[in-house]
Amino acid sequence: MARNWSDYKTNSWVQWCPACGNFGILLAVQKAFAELNLPPEKVSIVSGIGCSSRIPYYVKSSNIHTLHGRPIPVAEGIKLANPEQTVVVASGDGDLLGIGAGHFVALGRRNMQIAILLHDNAVYGLTKGQAAPTLPLWVKTKALDSPNIQSQVNPLLLAFASGYTFIARAYAYHVDQLKDLIKAAINHKGTSLIDILQPCPTYNDIMTKEWYEKRIYYLTSEDPSWDPLVSSSEDFDAKAPKILNKMTEWGDKIPLGIFYVNMSVEPLDTRIEKILPGYLQYPPAKRPIEIKS
Ligand code: SF4
């Protein structure tokens, strides 16, 4: 049965401010689910706490709104218990890169097939706009008494160092490009990150729609030969410097698109199969997992 994005709408009132970037992300998620023809009971969105973390209420699928910083361990539990489930984590930069940073790193080390949608607005919008981990050093938004004195976290570099095998950046108002990236991230057989630049018109008066749209460009439009695909360790050695160079570009120009895809790293279930032969052959309830005390 073909599905339409509106099949994933719920009756909940969407409680975001007018023009919030979260609206674009919501529509892109619904369109991606529809184009992948995902049955609502077979896909789970897991969120933490923040404005963006209300998204489970607005998408008709099997979702969980969890605790601050904890969506990733809950998502991992869902995936381990039910490997056939499509699992997406959607949360903010404060939730995933602040209090949840340890889980963000650990997920990459496991290379589980979970897609992370990072709603990246650089502020804690739900609690009146404090500086979040991706707010650049010395930036003073209208919600701050003084400029930010902490350096920003680069989500792409953190994911790369942690072992994520699909890393991309998107812009919340480019709905169709974001939708295509979400589909690719969900289909990737490993841990994926999409860092989604998401204007917060209420509290971030510096990194606005106008600010972003003067700077963003797509990797493939500037360099048609851009190739983020890594298929071996030799390939990694050859391509990593150029990939890292693009991941660190920020300021007058901000690249979007797929930075890195590594198909040569084993996902977690393949690793489990090596120590528990037969693991992949059984339906989840019958897997030969022996619990040792
Ligand atoms: Fe969106 Fe910012 Fe409003 Fe939160 S405070 S809903 S992030 S515009």
UniProtKB/TrEMBL annotation:
One of its GO terms (molecular function) is pyruvate synthase activity. It is an enzyme of class 1 (oxidoreductase). Gene3D superfamilies: 3.40.50.970. It holds the Pfam family TPP_enzyme_C. The keyword Magnesium applies. InterPro entries: 2-oxoacid:Fd_oxidored_beta (IPR053399), 2-oxoacid:Fd_oxidoreductase (IPR051457), OFOB (IPR011896), PFO_beta_C (IPR032686), THDP-binding (IPR029061), TPP_enzyme_TPP-bd (IPR011766). Its cofactor is [4Fe-4S] cluster; Mg(2+); thiamine diphosphate. It catalyses: a 2-oxocarboxylate + 2 oxidized [2Fe-2S]-[ferredoxin] + CoA = an acyl-CoA + 2 reduced [2Fe-2S]-[ferredoxin] + CO2 + H(+). Keywords: Iron, Iron-sulfur, Magnesium, Metal-binding, Oxidoreductase, Pyruvate, Thiamine pyrophosphate. Residues 49-196 form the Thiamine pyrophosphate enzyme TPP-binding domain. SUPFAM superfamilies: Thiamin diphosphate-binding fold (THDP-binding). Its EC number is 1.2.7.11. Residues 200-274 form the Pyruvate ferredoxin oxidoreductase beta subunit C-terminal domain. Heterodimer composed of an alpha and a beta subunit. This is 2-oxoacid oxidoreductase (ferredoxin). The lineage of its organism: Archaea, Thermoproteota, Thermoprotei, Acidilobales, Caldisphaeraceae.
